[in-house]
Amino acid sequence: MKGKTKTRDDDLEYVSLCRQGDVDAFEALVRRHEKRMFNIAYRVVGNYDEASETVQDAFISAYKNIKGFKGEAKFSTWLYAICINLSRNRLKRLKSRQYREGRSLNDPITTPDGELLGDPPSSEPSVLDRLEARDIKQHVQGCINTLDAEFKEVIVLRDLQGFSYEEISAMLKVPEGTVKSRLFRGREALRACLKGVMGEC
Amino acid sequence: MECREIKKRLSAYLEKAVSPQQKALIDEHLKKCKGCRQDLADLKKTIKYVQRLEEVEPPPWLAQKVMARVREEAEQKPGILKKLFYPFHIKLPLEAIAVIFIAVGTLYIFKTMQPQMQLAKIPTETKEMAPAPVTAPKKEKPPVVDQERPAPARVGDQFMYEKKLETREQGSVGMAKAPAEIARQEEAAPAAASAYRDESGHRGLMSSKALSPRTAAVGKTKEVHFLVHVADLDTASRDIAETLRQLGGRAITTEPLKNRTVIDAEINVNKLQELTDQLHLIGDVQEKGSADKAAEGDVAVTIDVLKMQESR
Question: Which terminus of chain A is less hemmed in, N or C, by CB atoms within 10 Å?
Answer without folding.
Answer: N
